Amino acid sequence: MKIFESVINHKINTITGDELLKYANQFQIKVNKAEAQKIAKYLRGRQVNIFNDAERAKLIKEIAKVAGPETAKEVNKLFVQFTK
Prior knowledge:
The chain is mostly helical. The chain has helices at 2-14, 17-26, 33-43, 53-67, 69-83. The longest helix is centred in the C-terminal third of the chain and has 15 residues, at 53-67.
């Protein structure tokens, strides 16, 4: 299970805006291209563990500052899909 978590977290930490947009569309999450680019820029290089609820909550608060609270909610839905 740890390998799976490592792969997902690595992807989150290196994601591009286009990849984020692709995943959002795949899971019917509402994120536009500009928001996806901002979020991906914020995420790149960070060592975050989306499987840790406290870390994910902190990350979502930071994303809300970058892209707005509604977008952060949508991204959280996407992260929750990744953790299932």
